[in-house]
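Treating backbone geometry as a discrete language has practical consequences that deserve illustration. The amino acid sequence and the backbone structure tokens for this protein are reproduced below.
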Amino acid sequence: MLTDTALDCQRCGACCASFRVSFYWAEADGEHGPGTFGVPADLTEPISPHLLCMQGTHARQPRCTALQGQVGSTVGCGIYEHRPSPCREVMPGDAQCLKARARHGLA
């Protein structure tokens, strides 16, 4: 059984280095329009006319540009208060979390 400590997002960061983080353009600020959460537009890249993703996550080996630190050790999000909706939806211990942890060899 995983403990709360094992699922500490401040020590993990696997989800930030496992998936493409795509979201509706209106969540970004600046050139992409007024944002609900104000994701910094300069940290995004376009996927389609209506979708953006966090820079670094649309890669063969994704790693969000806002992720700071070493996955599995000590990490943090450089834009935590302004992170997009997909980042707000992942919960410690949910299916996406466990898939990302497995991808990085974390229990």
